[in-house]
Amino acid sequence: MLAAIEGMLAELRAIGVPVSLAERIDATRSLRHLPAGDPGIIKAALRAALVKNHDHEPAFDALFDLYFSGAQPAGDGRGALESVDDARLGELLLAALRERDEVLLRAIVGVLVDRHAGIEPGRPVAGTYYVYRTLRAVDPDRMLAGLAGSGEIAPEGTLLRRLQHAEHEARLSRFRQLVEAQVRQRLVDDRGAAAVARTLRRPLPEDLDFLTSSAEQVAAMRAVLDPLTRKLAALLAAKRRRRRRGALDFRRTMRTSLGTGGIPVRQVFRKPHPAKPELFVLADISGSVATFSGFALQLMYALRSQFARVRSFVFVDRVDEVTDVLHQAADIAEAARRINAAGSGIWLDGRSDYGHAFESFTQGWGEQLRGRTTVIVLGDARNNYHDPREAALKTVSQRAGHLFWLNPEPRAAWDSGDSVMARYRPLCEAVHECRNIRQLRAFVENLGC
Predict the structure, then answer these.
(1) What is the pLDDT of residues 155-196, one digit of tens each?
(2) The Cα angle at residue 323 between residues 319 and 325, in degrees rounded to 5
(3) Which among 18, 22, 310, 321 is placed 20 to 30 Å from 302, CA to CA?
(4) Domain boundary assignment for the chain
(5) Model-level pTM?
């Protein structure tokens, strides 16, 4: 068991789940007090010791099943079912789902995987196609319809009907989980848990690349962003309170010094009331960069309580303010639809022109920048070989208190092709690679408030 936990811990660290030495020790020690024959209790204990973020639970669950899944026990009833044809096996499966007969369900799953998965020994695959082939043989939709047609059916549209449907889907989901577990077990028996874990390895939601993520991955990132916003807001508020102390309270200091003969050994300071900065966010919304800008705009706007005010601007080859759009829209998706419908950020041909965009920003809003203003530019600095017009960004840098640039491209790609990052970098207080939510969070945590 110790070898299994070591392998699982190594894989968790490999995919980015933080596991400290103390947590590793706690997890190992907990095994001494747990029943070795109950994987459910072991899983719950290790999850409590190792997982600190709800978004990391799916990764932990999958790896636990790999490293702690035992071989199918002998005498599981599979032998009696091997001579049963598929039609009869489907009837038995439906009966097992209705009666919640876990023993019969496991036996049926074993036969179905043997018959229909078509597992090829030695192939370095994750097993998704094997699961699909097994499920296709029994038609999950037909099984769901069979469950829905059994017993007393509540009237359509009632709460009881919705609860019945949810219960039937939960039973079918259990069947899918058993199929996945069986396939994984066969792969582990063939190639070992570590090899299978490498083929199953997927980045955590906070490590997904903004520029290359699929629609499903973007949805996963959005689920991570909402709770992250609340954590960052609390962090920034605490950080601002601690960052500096107030002015010296001379009267209270002298009163305190009476106990030391008039020597002000301990100075007393007034309670600090640090001013909140203003935040101006300029986001490139062209092409694939729009996904990154959407996330960053959403995060910055959600943190508006930590700033005196947050103003949001978008550009392609011209800057337009969209602060009111973000305020009125129900979510960032609706805001994006409104921005696109209005043609915001487009001046001429709809191709990125950072130079003209910065110039239009300084002409329209440059006079409103001041020492308390922090300006953040979101974009890849790919200028389609237009004039960068560094003087416009230099004006922003001189008038604002801080100027940061977040670039969603890998640092190695900067200054290649039509990128003019090298022309803008000297004008910024700092330029950061920001390819995923983890890097975006790190920037916000260190943002001077």
Answers:
(1) 877 888 888 888 888 999 889 888 988 888 888 888 887 777
(2) 100
(3) 18
(4) 2-68, 78-202, 215-243+275-445, 247-274
(5) 0.63
**What whole-number distance in Å separates Cα of residue 340 and Cα of residue 363?**
23
- 309 φ/ψ sector (left φ>0, alpha ψ -120 to 50, else beta): beta
Of 270, 322, 276, residue with least CA distance to 297: 322
Is residue 359 predicted with pLDDT exceeding 70?
yes
DSSP assignment letter at 154: P
Domain 215-243+275-445 has CATH 3.40.50.1000: no
pLDDT at 360 over 90: yes
Contact predicate 378/337, CB 8 Å? no
Half-sphere exposure of 39 (CA within 13 A, CB side): 12
From the number of C-beta atoms within 10 Å of its C-beta (0-12, 13-18, 19+), residue 285 rates as buried
Radius of gyration over alpha carbons of the chain, in Å? 29
- CA distance linking residue 414 with residue 432, whole number of Å: 11
The yes-or-no verdict on residue 72 having pLDDT over 50 is: no
What three-state secondary structure class fits 403?
strand
Between the alpha carbon of residue 381 and those of residues 210, 361, 395, 435, the distances in Å are: 16, 16, 18, 14
Please state, in angstroms and rounded to a whole number, the distance separating the CA atoms of residues 344 and 317: 10
Strand order in the sheet with 309-315: 319-321, 309-315, 278-284, 373-378, 402-407, 430-433
Closest CA to 339 of 355, 356, 352, 326: 326
366 token code pair:
């440059």
At 159, list the tokens.
């709460």
Conformation bin of residue 385: beta by default, left when phi > 0, alpha when psi is -120 to 50: left
- In DSSP terms, 319 is beta-bridged to 315
Three-class DSSP category at 407: strand
